[in-house]
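quick one: FE2/S2 (inorganic) cluster bound model?
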Amino acid sequence: MARVIISSAHASHKLQVVDDEGNIRLRGICMCGLSSNLPFCNGSHRKTEDEEEGVLYTYNESGEREECSVQTELQE
Ligand code: FES
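yep, here:
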């Protein structure tokens, strides 16, 4: 099943988690939708760092980026 995830996040959300030994660690939760290890960040968000403002992109299953041509305003 395929789905479209629209996100403007370029980094993970950090959570403090306690492991089985009681150690507190930071875990990154994916906010960009590109991680192959969801819900955790795997660094794939770095691919989004040079995205241009106002441009919509898609990423295929190989992580390759393409620019979309989406009409955002109706023209009369
Ligand atoms: S925030 Fe999505 S991979 Fe890091």
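Residues 11-12, 28, 30-32, 34-35, 41-45 surround FE2/S2 (inorganic) cluster (CB under 6 Å).
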